[in-house]
Design goal:
This protein is α/β, with parallel strands linked by helices. About 45% of the residues lie in helices and about 15% in strands. The chain contains 20 helices and 16 strands. The strands form four sheets. Strands 4-5-15-10-11-14 form a six-stranded mixed sheet, sandwiched between helices. A five-stranded parallel sheet has the order 9-6-7-8-16, sandwiched between helices. Helix 9 crosses helix 10, helix 15 crosses helix 17 and helix 17 crosses helix 18. Bound molecules: pyridoxal-5'-phosphate.
């Protein structure tokens, strides 16, 4: 299976090269037609790590001994051996993706990516050290730090906006141990921080300096592939529970931002899993809802800060991969992307829109509805969900189907304790840690161990710089990592 750019058939790469490069040289994303001879039925009988080995081997065939990579990534690192438990809630199912080392769904992918990058580095004979640079608005930074911590041949620098992340998210990052990790606050907002990182990538590093820059961003195929696994795992759990017979369709509702999570569901389906509809759930930033309804993607709209911040996105990068997978026409995709850059919008063909409607449903809700949903589900089902999951739950309620419905849950409620406690009518005074513990007292829902011990951890990273200093900071670190 060979990968190519979504925008140019001639830009090809094996799966290991695609993982190392991240983005194709023309700015397109690496894609490939998913394998069609995948043995779904035997995979559904395996445990989670067994499924991961088979699915990742099928999608990334360059990697030998995928079983060892999978074990190194996951074994003993999640709260449960099954990694992503499926919990029945009020006639639907919640797929808990937040049981990893940092209580964010990004752990599923970012535990695996470092293993893939180091294996790809060896396979491609790259002797340079890989330096991961990441700008984070919160969750990605910590999950990447935890994933790359002490992985040989790699270093990672995470930049975060000094006042743009929550207290818990900040403490998660600045307490990160590991000889190969550095965390640095930037005076500015997330956009400033991200622009700074993009400029460093654009400037590049000198050849033969022994370092190669890479990103832990969700456009890397090595981040997408591990997410296919939990769709299989959820289906296998429904089979075991006797809730479906083999071949019955299951619908999945996905809280969506960059379109990585839901696209993994589409890949699972193309590989043969009996998925019915994939329901794309958005918050008030409803660019995807409008796109899926009308076929016009229009980013020229206000950006809203919501209580589900990981879904506050106007340009949903992984959508480009879906457009290619549905058309296999790189000229068409390149045209849409050019129009997005030049005009801020594009409209897909009628035939592509009908293909989209055959596979996807959509819906959105605002902050007030999100809060109301958290309160209602707590009251009626005694299930505590975070703000992102609540968006998906709300959209699921408005969606008609006869199939079993799985709602993907992407964060622990304790990562957004103020919104969640306020939604169930609690007192949200004090620090975010006060609120976290009060939420626990009020509900009795256990705080995951990594968050419970967080407040007491020592601070290990104190660097704060201006946005203009970011490039010099990286160069200084490359010369002298420990100072
Ligand atoms: C990243 C994230 C999402 C969005 O996932 P995409 O793959 O970008 O669509 C949703 N919820 C949470 C909590 C996240 O961290």
């Amino acid at each position: 299976m060979e990968y190519q750019s979504t925008r140019d058939k001639k830009l090809r790469a094996g799966s290991a090269e695609a993982v190392l490069r991240g983005l194709a040289p023309d700015g397109g994303l690496y894609v490939a037609r998913p394998p069609v001879d995948f043995d779904v039925h035997s995979v559904l009988r395996l445990d989670t790590l067994g499924m991961a080995e088979k699915i990742l081997s099928a999608l990334l065939p360059d990697f030998r001994d995928m079983g060892a990579l999978v074990r190194r990534a996951y074994a003993g690192k999640f709260e449960t051996e099954e990694l992503t438990p499926l919990v029945p809630v009020g006639g639907r199912y919640v797929l808990e993706l937040f049981r990893g080392p940092t209580s964010a769904f990004k752990d599923v992918a970012l535990s695996m990516l470092p293993q893939l990058i180091t294996a790809a580095r060896e396979r491609e004979g790259v002797t340079d050290e890989i330096l991961i640079l990441t700008a984070t608005s919160g969750d990605t930074g910590k999950a990447a730090l935890a994933g790359f911590c002490d992985v040989p041949g790699t270093k990672i620098i995470v930049f975060y906006p000094e006042n743009g992340v929550s207290e818990v998210q900040k403490k998660q990052m600045i307490s990160q141990a590991g000889a190969n990790v550095r965390v640095c606050a930037v005076r500015g907002n997330f956009d400033d921080t991200q622009t700074g990182v993009k400029e460093i990538f654009a400037a590049g590093v000198k050849e033969n300096c022994g370092v190669r820059l890479s990103s832990a961003n969700s456009i890397n195929i090595g981040r997408l592939a591990p997410q296919v696994v939990y769709y299989y795992k959820a289906y296998a759990d429904l089979l075991k529970a006797g809730r479906v017979a083999c071949g019955d369709k299951v619908d999945f509702v996905v809280p969506t931002g960059n379109f990585g999570d839901i696209l993994a569901g589409y890949l699972a389906k193309r590989m043969g899993l009996p998925v019915g509809k994939l329901v794309c759930a958005s918050n008030r930033n409803d660019v995807l809802t409008d796109f899926l309804r009308t076929g016009t993607y229009d980013r020229r709209r206000p950006f809203y800060k919501t209580i589900s911040p990981s879904m506050d996105i106007l340009v949903s990068s992984n959508l480009e991969r879906l457009l290619w997978l549905l058309t296999e026409n790189e000229d068409e995709v390149a045209g849409y992307m050019r129009s997005l850059t030049e005009n801020g919008c594009y409209t897909v063909s009628d035939s592509l829109l009908s293909k989209l409607h055959a596979e996807f449903a959509y819906g959105c809700c605002d902050d007030a509805q999100t809060m109301e949903t958290i309160g209602k589900v707590w009251k009626t089902e005694h299930y505590l969900m975070d703000t992102h999951t609540a968006v998906a739950w709300r959209v699921a309620e408005g969606y008609q189907t006869d199939a079993p419905v799985v709602v993907l849950s992407t964060a622990s409620p304790y990562k957004f304790p103020t919104a969640v406690l306020s939604a169930i009518g609690g007192d949200t005074s004090g620090t975010e840690f006060d609120v976290m513990f009060r939420l626990n007292e009020l509900t009795g829902v256990p705080v995951s161990p990594n968050l419970a011990r967080l407040q007491k951890l020592p601070i290990l990273h104190r660097d704060v710089i201006d946005r203009e200093e970011m490039q010099a900071y990286v160069q200084r670190r490359m010369r002298q990592w420990d100072e």
